[in-house]
Write a structure and sequence with these properties.
189 residues, 10 helices, globular
Length: 189
């Protein structure tokens, strides 16, 4: 665990302890397993149009409301569950985003039924590591050929809310790429 200090250079997150912990201890570190990856994909989709800090603050509510992102349980949610979730202030109450979580759980289960996994599919699009870290955020792309290909493969498998920009954000968050800028404390960890 990185010592909590407010004078460290971070790519993002300074000033909010929750955001600082996310930056220092989670963002950019490898995430493995279907359940953990499904969570990240759902949360990245939920973040669309909102700040990531909003989603971080609601993350525990999401975990409770969406059965810990267990794809087999979440895939069984009914239209009645959707209506209940639309009243749940612990999450972003957007019908399309809620329904996408259930659809993506179904797709995750479908991958298993086909003899593969979300983990295998997702990580198969990991690019070669960069030779040099980005110097500034201006050097970080919004999407890459790998995120475009990942989005296409996920859509083919039945996933929704998985556009190339959203998937690049997921690739960053899940450690497929390391976009911490040069000089960031996370690069020294």
């Amino acid at each position: 665990m990185i010592e909590e200090r407010h004078d460290l250079l971070r790519c993002f997150g300074n000033g909010d302890p929750l955001y600082e912990r996310y930056h220092d201890e989670e963002w950019g570190l490898p995430v493995y397993g279907d359940q953990a990856l499904l969570e990240r994909i759902v949360l990245e989709g939920a973040q669309s149009g909102l700040s990531w800090l909003t989603i971080l603050r609601k993350r525990e509510g999401y975990r409770e409301a969406f059965a810990g992102f267990d794809p087999f349980v979440l895939a069984e949610f009914t239209p009645r569950d959707v209506e209940d979730l639309l009243q749940d202030t612990r999450i972003v109450r957007n019908r399309r985003k809620i329904e996408s979580a259930i659809t993506n759980a179904w797709a995750t289960v479908g991958l298993r039924d086909q003899g593969t996994s979300l983990h295998e599919l997702f990580w198969s699009f990991a690019p070669e590591p960069r030779a040099e870290p980005p110097a500034t955020w201006a050097d970080v792309p919004a999407q890459t050929p790998e995120s475009v290909a990942l989005a296409k493969a996920l859509k083919k498998a039945g996933f929704v809310f998985v556009g190339p920009t959203t998937m690049y954000a997921a690739m960053q968050a899940c450690g497929l790429v390391n976009d911490h800028i040069a000089g960031c404390v996370a690069r020294r960890a």
